Amino acid sequence: MTALKTSFPLNAWYAAAYDVEVKHELLARTICKQKMVMFRQSDGTVAMLEDACWHRLLPLSMGRLEGDEVVCGYHGLVYNAQGRCTHMPSQETLNPSACVRSYPVVEKHRFVWVWPGDPAKADPALVPDMHWNDDPAWAGDGKMITVKCDYRLVVDNLMDLTHETFVHGSSIGQRAVAEAPFVATHGNRKATVTRWMENIDAPPFWAGQIKQARGYEGKVDRWQIIQFEAPCTVVIDVGVAQAGTGAVPPGGNQGDARLSERSHGVNGQVLNTITPATDNTCHYFWAFARNYSLGEQRLTHQLREGVASIFREDEHVLEAQQIAMEEHPEHQFYNLNIDAGSMWARKLIDKLVAAEQPAAKIIPIRQAA
Amino acid sequence: MTALKTSFPLNAWYAAAYDVEVKHELLARTICKQKMVMFRQSDGTVAMLEDACWHRLLPLSMGRLEGDEVVCGYHGLVYNAQGRCTHMPSQETLNPSACVRSYPVVEKHRFVWVWPGDPAKADPALVPDMHWNDDPAWAGDGKMITVKCDYRLVVDNLMDLTHETFVHGSSIGQRAVAEAPFVATHGNRKATVTRWMENIDAPPFWAGQIKQARGYEGKVDRWQIIQFEAPCTVVIDVGVAQAGTGAVPPGGNQGDARLSERSHGVNGQVLNTITPATDNTCHYFWAFARNYSLGEQRLTHQLREGVASIFREDEHVLEAQQIAMEEHPEHQFYNLNIDAGSMWARKLIDKLVAAEQPAAKIIPIRQAA
Amino acid sequence: MTALKTSFPLNAWYAAAYDVEVKHELLARTICKQKMVMFRQSDGTVAMLEDACWHRLLPLSMGRLEGDEVVCGYHGLVYNAQGRCTHMPSQETLNPSACVRSYPVVEKHRFVWVWPGDPAKADPALVPDMHWNDDPAWAGDGKMITVKCDYRLVVDNLMDLTHETFVHGSSIGQRAVAEAPFVATHGNRKATVTRWMENIDAPPFWAGQIKQARGYEGKVDRWQIIQFEAPCTVVIDVGVAQAGTGAVPPGGNQGDARLSERSHGVNGQVLNTITPATDNTCHYFWAFARNYSLGEQRLTHQLREGVASIFREDEHVLEAQQIAMEEHPEHQFYNLNIDAGSMWARKLIDKLVAAEQPAAKIIPIRQAA
């Protein structure tokens, strides 16, 4: 873990809002240190503009919509969804420079994604895979919370679930998590941490789920497969199955066949994507999707609130950590074995950030003759 | 509009308080980044001192009055109205340097004015004309609010009433204001913006006034004559009259005769003077005086509260603008036609500020021989 | 009085807590800009550790105790009372550098004292004498308040009781204090201010005490003997006795015999020790012990709350003074006669601070040949 510095790439898709948050109304949000205002247009698509009037900088979000155009709340300049000024008060001629920035937007898997960097690079195919969030084979829901910490601290938190034992002891934590071995691997843009716990007592949360959904009480196999995608998305495949029913990794071979053989268990996907707001705040979007008891809306509600409680415990820890890090700007951090996953995540983030830095000038060095 | 910088002249009269605020009690207020304490003396005049004891800097406003002297609330040093220390605890001899600054004060037109600069230049004749505030031919009242913005943003706001259409749509705003042509002129210390709107529907506020005072319903001529006096006073002559009764400018000639021919209308003077407190806060003193229904105290009360509501809408916009400007310190502002008045106001302010800067050393430039 | 700068020695005992505050629980407190966490061990002694986990800096005070060891609330690292890490999650080998700082602690006279500097110099004999706080010949109690000011402003306040007249006029203040002569003396680490007021009316507080305890009403002799011990402890011997009964200094000779001849009076010890928290906040520990009506618990309660009210008046003044000093960083302070005691206190503090500075390099100066 390196010391704190501003470090997020701009050329990436970031979740800006949950789909239901964006209506035919002005909604302000700060993404990657940029103030943005978004609204849903008549055709259903979302427009995202810089939230500062070209004229006197008043946030456009303090104005109002007129059709699919934004009217500034101070002097009435009007902007279309592309950010171009289409009307100025008391004058016929429009200053050709009069526009605000407009951002590429994609709506996918229940999130509105924005690309704060170079629009030419905004390829929709790069949106992270969160398909469980609107896949009919899965049911679930989520929330967004704004956390007062560097978004990377949330990533660290998710990449090492050892903390469940100490932070979430009353729900999903258990000694087994802190003690079980895990495997960390990585690719070019992804890093994975896999932990299997065989033939253990289920923690309170999972014991309740498997009893309710499968009528099973007894020892379970438990898994956590954490997959990070740079810069800030973490999908965690979690669950428990009746001990010895096949959810256990067969001799280390983690093939697709095995992963799909979970019919005696309960399986969830914890979907997380964490958008930097400023250097020390972030918007943390999450959802919990399950592949059992799909029709039970009561369970969806209960799980959403339950996970929200768990994340509030994390929030408390993360905000304290942020304060402590700001108080120790020179602190040299040491890594433990459990930090393997977050170390890889950090490296992949750093690589993206470095790729956006201007190339350093290379000054040829000649030895004195 | 230039980027934000500290910029108010010190050699000017600034409203420090409404007359009724100043009693035989210590009242603290920050004016032009200087903490001051004021009180009304036995003879009715107001004394204004630096609000920091010479000895240990405790605000004198935390002490108490003894006659017309201030006793510090920590160690009991006593200061007279000229700021000279007249008593020290446990010692007979007074340190000759023991004094706090005292400021020139004038009370006029219901305001207590202070001169934060060179006392030798404090000419009472320079107090801005706000006579409507205690002229028996006019009735009215006002308030003071402390706004979290550079005082010049309030001046900008008042110099362009286009914003009424967008900020005050439910009371005095109407499309006609944003669309009507206006004329901006300026002198050495004053700048004027004049806008006439002929034969229009009155906005809600004025429709009510003219109906109540004159029993008139129908088309009106409406005027706004904004007069700025540097550095921070803006008097706005506003009103409506029965359409075509003479309140209209006769061929561009804005002589006294025409201006006084308003017997079929209702006329108000919006009196504004905005005192810088710090670089990003100001004390905004205003009053609304009218020349109709003079004896109706209920109307005075109603108008004061009505105008207060309108100014709260401005306050919301101005504070947001201040924050946005601080977030964009390098922003290059463009001006629209509607900014003509505030541009002149800014130039007149800048001239006063520049006049107080130490003269730059002139280094003779010699061309190489 | 010099301008504000960080200035407290690290090699000194500072009160960290009242004895009763420290239980078998984690208690966080900032001392001399260092965040510490303390807890009482099974054997009754107090352990004091740096309040930041070696791994990710989470405050250890957010974790929990397991026996006499602290478990971090994030990843479960365990530290013993010496600050050494004894357990890490998911690994057998402990990183040898894994420890947090542990501080020398002494518990004496009802306070838990910590030494933030070099542990090798932490001599328990240097703990300031506050024995009245647990001496059976005295009864009393006290409190701790965190004040938003440089701890030296509290010292200044206590070294000159002239302020009682102006700040505490309704209880212990009276003109006599501001007018009475006083004597200031000093030694190597201590400074003393002695003030005798003979044959005066007692102020409200003391009039009540002597009437209740001794049944006496009438003129009194009053004394205040303020003793400062660097860097931040002030013990004030205060009281009144029946006028002329021997509490008066016999011809300037302040021998022990006289001081103990107070049988016709009431005597209190105001115990104060002020621990710097940051540059502009401090923890002010105080107690009031008396040598009369020892068994009356009601009086102990009443006096503790009464003194607390008096100190709240000081708190208000001190915080305002701190703000004013920060606003005037360049202010040159002048001293009055009454500042003699605090001037000596400041000199003794400065001497301790200077002794901890690295010796300046001495660069030999050679005159040009």
Walkthrough of the structure:
The structure is a homotrimer of 369-residue chains. Chain A has 369 residues and is α+β, with helices and mostly antiparallel strands. Chain A has 2 domains: 14-125, Rieske [2Fe-2S] iron-sulphur domain (Rieske Iron-sulfur Protein, 3-layer Sandwich), CATH 2.102.10; 130-354, Naphthalene 1,2-dioxygenase Alpha Subunit, Chain A, domain 1. Chain A has helices at 151-159, 163-167, 175-179, 204-214, 256-260, 297-327, 340-356, and strands at residues 14-18, 27-31, 34-40, 46-50, 64-66, 69-71, 78-79, 85-87, 105-108, 111-114, 139-147, 182-186, 190-200, 220-229, 233-242, 265-278, 281-290. In chain A, the strands form 4 sheets. Chain A has a 7-stranded antiparallel beta sheet. Chain A has a 4-stranded antiparallel beta sheet with strand order 5-6-7-8, with no helix packed on it. Chain A has a 3-stranded antiparallel beta sheet with strand order 1-10-9, with no helix packed on it. In chain A, a hairpin with a 5-residue loop joins strand 3 (34-40) and strand 4 (46-50). The longest helix of chain A is centred in the last third of the chain and has 31 residues, at 297-327. The first copy, chain A, is globular, with a radius of gyration of 23 Å. Chain A starts with 13 loop residues before the first strand and ends in a 13-residue tail after the last helix. Chains in contact: A-B, A-C, B-C.
SSE map:
The structure is a homotrimer of 369-residue chains.
Chain A: E1 14-18, E2 27-31, E3 34-40, E4 46-50, E5 64-66, E6 69-71, E7 78-79, E8 85-87, E9 105-108, E10 111-114, E11 139-147, H1 151-159, H2 163-167, H3 175-179, E12 182-186, E13 190-200, H4 204-214, E14 220-229, E15 233-242, H5 256-260, E16 265-278, E17 281-290, H6 297-327, H7 340-356
Antiparallel strand pairs in A: 1-10, 2-3, 3-4, 5-6, 6-7, 7-8, 9-10, 11-17, 12-13, 13-14, 14-15, 15-16, 16-17
